[in-house]
Amino acid sequence: RPDGSEYPIAECPIHRSAKDRIACEVEDEVMWRKDGTSLRVAYAASPVHDDGQLSGVVVNFRDITARRLAELELIMARDVAEEASRAKSEFLARMSHELRTPLNSIIGFANVLIRKRGGSFTPDDLTYLGRISSSGMHLLGLINDILDLSKIEAGRMTLEMSAVSLDALARETLDQFETQAKERRVVLRTDVPAALSSLDTDAVRMKQVLINLVGNALKFTERGEVVIAIVSDATGRPVRLSVRDTGIGIPADRIAAIFTVFEQADSTTSRRFGGTGLGLAISRSLCEVMGHTLEVESIEGVGTTMTICFGHSAIAWVRRTPSSVPVTQPHSSLDGSDAATVLVVEDEPDARLLLGHLLDETGCRVIYATTGVEALHLARMHLPAMIFLDLGLPAISGVDLLRLFRSDEILKDTPIVIVSVSANDSRSLLDGAAAVLDKPVTRDQIRDVVRLWLPSHMVRQAAPT
Ligand code: ADP
Hints:
Layout: H1 13-20, E1 24-32, E2 38-50, E3 53-63, H2 65-115, H3 123-153, E4 162-164, H4 166-176, H5 178-183, E5 186-191, E6 199-201, H6 203-219, E7 224-232, E8 238-245, H7 269-273, H8 279-289, E9 293-299, E10 303-309, E11 341-345, H9 349-361, E12 365-369, H10 372-382, E13 386-389, H11 398-406, E14 416-420, E15 435-438, H12 443-453
Parallel strand pairs: 5-7, 11-12, 11-13, 13-14, 14-15
Antiparallel strand pairs: 1-2, 2-3, 4-6, 7-8, 8-10, 9-10
Helix pairs in contact: 2-3, 3-8, 4-6, 6-8, 9-12
The structure holds adenosine-5'-diphosphate.
Adenosine-5'-diphosphate binds at residues 212, 216-217, 220, 245, 247-250, 258, 264-265, 269, 275-281, 304.
């Protein structure tokens, strides 16, 4: 030993090997030279027998100092990389919030101006406003994609599992692309077995994947059809879902590359069709996180089929849907007039102004709070018919405020609509919300949610778009 004391013989594997007449192996041990320096060794001891008598032990030493040093270097490099990755994810999460907040204002206010087309805007002005809005949406999509990727990479993607009707999800997705398909002479349809049971998966993330697959299918198909086909087993359990198109197809030597971040089938794709090459990488990772796989088959000039094969996943949490919550009509909101009072809880001035404007258009009387304390005070005083709640509030967070409202004797049944950039990250904490809307909210979303929760005589009919 380095201090000169002797290694207890009973602890020595060489001794054990001889005593018990067995072979022993030691993976990694520190041995000390006489000069006090150490080395790492691995060794094996085997007893030697002579005419049935134990005559000795053969011990085979290997100096593993270099190997252990290399392993330690690897562990240190991994720790440094993990720290860098964590810092990158944190940076992206922060930056994306900082970027999304002003972007939501740009998009929201551009849309408000576009709708005032009866005003003094020339056709050119309206075109420029349209460009501001669509470029803003494009940038927002990119930021959301990059954030999703960093979350998946950092293993921080959370899922909310529930029993999902794939039939309904497929139809909803196709509905979103109806106008685009008509412009291209492409038929959109579903091919779904009659008795299809639901699938335990994350509805929001599954829809995100479907939107990406159908969006791509349409983008690369000039004419023909885009079909969402679902196959089930004999019991009706969904086995796989395919998005099939009759488009340009993908060259065989580029099939593997399209799932790589920022890769496209050929270098002219982004010039001809736009896109960044992030969608499929995200879709495949999301499928894997949900326990499914995403595969592609394609023939150039004939078409492409993207197939999700469903794995088994457990139900973790099912969010309450609006229909299961009783609609309340607080008496004070009627106060002589039919206009309902709604409370907007939002600390960011532009977002407050935009939401207020959209609610104003539905005929509601809007009151505002910028903090949780002010919100509780105003809500108890005015008993609003609905509350619109941002999550990123200072001091008391939106999630905590939702919990406080839900446990308040007077306010517990007031429908609360979450309006946030980070709603997806907190879905498991939003049980009890009447609806969850991602920023930027549109006029239609606000009108729909107000119509759903308020009696019709309190809601102004839609103005022409
Ligand atoms: P993006 O569409 O933004 O470029 P994706 O990751 O969604 O990014 O797709 C990567 C590439 O894969 C596309 O640029 C395109 O070259 C190819 N691709 C994806 N889907 C199809 C499809 N249905 N038909 C033909 N090519 C496709």
